[in-house]
Amino acid sequence: MEIRPASRADIPFLAEMSLLAAFPPGPLPDGAADLPRVRRWTEGWGRPGDAGVVAWDGGERVGAAWCRFQDEAIVRDDQGVAPAEIAIAVVPSRRSRGVGGDLLVALDRAAVERGHQALCLTVSPMNPAVRLYERAGFETVSRDGSKIVMMARLAARAGSGLADERPPGFREGALYVFMALDEETFSSVALARQRCDPAMALLIDPHITLTPPFRDAPDLDAIATIQSIAARWLPITLEVGGASRFDGSDVVYLRVEPVEIVRQLHFDLLATGLFQPDPHAASWAPHMTISVAPGGAEQALDVAASLTTVKTVCRSLALVGPDASGRFVMRSTVSDGARVRLQFARDR
To answer: Can you give the pTM of this predicted structure?
Structure first.
């Protein structure tokens, strides 16, 4: 599946999705497409503040999420500002497959890039999507018998320059473990990282950083050395969960078990001399970072604590380095020889 920014060519599909979002399953009333509460979602698309994403699979559109300022505000923030309202829908044949969660992650990113500081929505209390919205950071601000109004505050605008703060030589990449999680869990973790630290989330998907950067670009001999170490230790069953914070810092992370096995893999890799010195080697422990945003640790701890502990099997190490835009991409993998499912190697 691929998620793309919404364009004018997508307006007819957004109109179809507006109907799915506006009405419960079943026959539509006559003239439904012309009702103001439906037309308001696409009419004059391209206004300031409009942002949207469309999910594609097999050459077909399968879902969309978008936001725009509406004439009538359903909620206002502490400063009296009405946030953009969102609509989201997935075609019936693709529901319950994680598409909605991925759309929310992408829309969150698109909204931050457009300068939005919050998003809001209305949903029926009987709609199972309420749980999805809660996992995405939306909180109930009001409710009556027929609807719930929810709002999510977006983290600070993503242009933090994090991509330009890499240690010297990071252009050669490092070894990471990407998390082979099911769709629902992946979406929950990705949304948590996006909510707490959008700059980091834009750069790389959920992962464990296993080594410092390479000293030099790894050649075939270096890859063969890493391969032999991977064959010795992999696969490893990992348990990820439990919020923690590094002392004296704003770094919030999820703990990873078993610590000692992953530490030994880490130290065996460092012993090759292929990587830059690690000033924190003595205290290094495996972890999945949720946020490094300055001043955001308390919020990130609360968000991380709400995530369910999960198990995943690490069968490969990923050689990851920055592309021209600064986003970290997977260049190759080193595995234990077993067949590896690359469902976690997503092209955002």
So the answer is: 0.53
